Amino acid sequence: MRKIWLIFFLSLALFGEDTNLTETNTSSPKHHWVTQDGEPSWQLHLLLKKIEDDETILCKDRLQTQIVKLKSAIRKKEPLAIERLANTIESGYLQIRNRGCYDPALFLEENFLPPHKPTIEGELDSPILQRLYVALQKYENLRQETKRWEPIELEDRLYLSPGAIDEVIPKIRRRLYIEGFYPKDDCNSTLYDKDMVRAVKDFQYHHGLKDDGVIGPMTLSAMNESLERKIERIKINIERARWFLQPEEYFVFVNIPGFFMQVYEDGKPIFRSKVIVGRKKRPTPQMRNLISYCVLNPYWRAPKTILKEDIIPSLKKGDFEHLKEEGIIASTDYYGKEVVDFEDVDWKYFDEESMPFTFLQTPGPHNFLGYVKFMFPNRFDVYLHDTNARNLFKYSYRALSSGCVRVKKPIELLHLFLNRTKEVDYRDILDMLWTKQTQKLPIRPNIPVYLLYLSVWMDDNEEVFFYPDIYGIDKKMLAFLHR
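The structure corresponding to this sequence follows.
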């Protein structure tokens, strides 16, 4: 099929809510959709069956008008019309599979829209999408087996702790059993015993919650999310992934609501690290970019957002001690060589546009960026970096930064990148760091990096995770689908 798709190249735009399919002119039909007897070929039957069975797309109805016309042409035995319509349907279907159904502008703020995605030859093949496809099939199978669960209420209780005895516990056991967290089919016990504690902790872990075994409002809310809603969430995550993904052999993938990053090579993950991402008011943007260099012992320079919302208000209030405790200095030059005292400037005359000073931290253990940052220049001024607040990685909820992505294992990541082209050991890297000199190291070849908002994920063991919708993008997309 890929060879066929290469012959019949994409020729229509299907990347917005109101986009319509248009028929493709074929002055010299190839007749690969029609047999010599004028009957539909096996390739055509396969295409229609594939579309009919495809549960990964949200806008299958967009293809139906052309499919109705095609079936009419088949009944009338019109081979030229069959060829033309089949080409249009195939191109439209491929466009949806590669780019998604909807314009991201419907759901993302203007400043966070992705750039136009280049044309992909053939069907997009990405390990990110493949994992989501398997997750969707797993939950579609549950639906086909009619393994739905009933809503759970704790009545007058806010929490249900281990050791409790309650009539609602058998219902919770059955709920956990259906989704595979509780191993036993015998769910009649009303005691919150050790087996159930393990199942609840496993459930919490797979839903991005604190896995303490206590069933409170957040755990109960996750348990009461219906099977149908989980399937819809998988589908909208597939849609979002299609907005950004391209075929890559080697790339970095950051899952924003999952708080982790991975490096993929030849379709398999070869590295993983916890990350800290932007908080809700300063979200980490979704994007695809290229890591082109890294900086050892970096300076931290305040970006415009932090300058406007944090530093300038502190300066105008005269709160200089806080800035000094953070090791922040004001300089008339870019590298902090001409430092000025905060007390010597009347800050009321300056805002973020007229500010003549650079605010920065010199390199060292106190630096917000730690010892290394990985650069992929972008309009958001976002990058991957080390951190001086490593204690934050112990928390399960890690939407705590001002937009950049803090990496728990930055030295290991640097070692991995540098060893792509030449042999470098950790001693070489540490020697460079111990000079305390700022150094810029090019990354060749450049490495694609994806910052994606995937609130559903499937790991290497084919276990599915549903993460909290920290920026509310799931909520916005689901409301759109149910409008």
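The first strand starts at residue 250 and ends at 255.
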